[in-house]
């Protein structure tokens, strides 16, 4: 019989230390989750500007964590699953609660239904995204496209009525009406769960001659974000929404060219 105080031997393949660089993407993901939860806090306090701001901050952090993971070669299945769970909170639950508090809370009986519809749509959209990551049968022409509107963009679209009212108070009676918000939440719920191809910029290549003009545009955009925050975010969200038909057109063109080579 072995002594009680004998040291337990760890399996040879069990890690006892993890490089800090591998934790950095997960730390950024957790910060995005904190931003989403903070948005819920401000939504319950009717602090609309801070509630919206923290959802967009979550979107910014969500865009960084994957790129940081690839840059540091720290991608992992754990990180991918954590990212999806955090996305559901920040871009599924937080916008739903915010829209409910802002407009739909006093819609008799069915106001919460439209928020549930949006949140459930986001859950299904993220689940499908994770399943497609392991699907090797996806045609190559899907590489530059998302299936449906991605989570951060869907959250921005859901909040667009609030963004507009920050700078255009005269539009608030219409944009904050039960009918408009209910229809709008249904439209966004459909777009996020649909199989409509939307443009992905992850693998988009920029011509050398366009680098400097693009940097100037980014600098100009940054200036507008600091001086006209809500108007700029609203315009960017509107432009993205209006570009959905262009994404469909480009996808059909890429698909036709791919099939022509077969």
Please provide a written account of the structure:
The structure is a single chain. By secondary structure, the chain is mainly alpha-helical. It is built from 11 helices and 2 strands. It has helices at 20-44, 48-71, 77-102, 111-133, 151-158, 160-167, 172-175, 178-193, 211-227, 229-242, 244-260, and strands at residues 145-147, 197-199. The protein has a two-stranded antiparallel sheet. α2 packs antiparallel against α5 (151-158). The N and C termini lie far apart (70 Å).
**Number of E-state strands:** 2
Unreliably modeled segments: none
**Roughly how many Å is the radius of gyration?**
22 Å
The share of residues in helices is 55-70%
User: Structural class, from helix and strand content?
Assistant: mainly alpha
- Termini gap: 70 Å
Characterize the main sheet. Answer: 2 strands, antiparallel
Order of helices and strands: HHHHEHHHHEHHH
SS element count, helices: 11
Q: Looking at the structure, what is the overall shape? A: globular
């Amino acid at each position: 019989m072995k002594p009680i105080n004998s040291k337990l031997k760890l399996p040879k393949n069990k890690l006892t230390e993890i490089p800090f660089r591998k934790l950095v993407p997960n730390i950024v993901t957790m910060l995005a989750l904190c931003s989403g939860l903070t948005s819920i806090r401000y939504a319950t306090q009717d602090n609309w500007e801070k509630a919206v701001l923290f959802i967009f901050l979550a979107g910014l952090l969500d865009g960084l964590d994957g790129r940081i993971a690839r840059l540091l070669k720290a991608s992992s299945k754990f990180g991918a699953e954590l990212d999806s769970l955090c996305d559901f909170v920040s871009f599924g639950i937080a916008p739903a609660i915010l829209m409910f508090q802002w407009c739909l809370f006093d819609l008799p009986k069915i106001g919460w239904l439209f928020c549930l519809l949006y949140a459930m749509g986001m859950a299904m959209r993220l689940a499908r995204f994770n399943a497609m990551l392991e699907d090797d049968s996806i045609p190559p022409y899907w590489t530059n496209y998302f299936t449906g509107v991605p989570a951060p963009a869907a959250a921005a679209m859901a909040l667009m009525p609030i963004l507009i009212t920050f700078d255009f108070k005269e539009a608030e009676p219409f944009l904050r009406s039960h009918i408009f918000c209910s229809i709008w939440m249904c439209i966004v719920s459909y777009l996020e769960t649909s199989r409509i191809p939307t443009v992905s910029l992850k693998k988009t290549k920029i011509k050398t001659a366009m680098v400097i003009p693009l940097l100037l545009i980014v600098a100009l955009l940054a200036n507008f974000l600091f001086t006209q925050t809500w108007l700029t975010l609203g315009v960017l969200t509107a432009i993205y929404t209006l570009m959905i038909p262009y994404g469909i057109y480009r996808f059909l063109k890429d698909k036709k060219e791919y099939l022509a080579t077969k």
